[in-house]
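Hi U.,

Before I forget, here's the chain from the pilot set. I'm dumping it here mostly so it's searchable later in email.
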Amino acid sequence: QVQLVESGGGLVQAGGSLRLSCAASGSFFRMNDMGWHRQGPGKQRELVAAISSGGITNYADSVKGRFTISRDNTKNTVYLQMNSLKPEDTAVYYCNADYVEVDRLRLMTRSHWGQGTQVTVSS
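Structure:
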């Protein structure tokens, strides 16, 4: 089992920046892809950014050029640097991780979500 704890959310004005962190802990064999999704008020959850264990990244078109996802594999932590924030970025941001655990001598791929952290951008 793995636990994900997000931090770094808050209230900022349009044009400001925030840096989100998500630290994985618990029992797992290897951490694979990690990423961030968000869900704004009255909206469906959507992918924001993802990063593979090798550092390959993927971004939603709406955040390209403004957000940067990165990870520190030694700390099992993924980050989301958010610059030039807009009011439409307001949402609960959720960390997601795909990981591998050992179960009865088999490697099992699992997925887990963090509790979410609120990001509010005011105009």
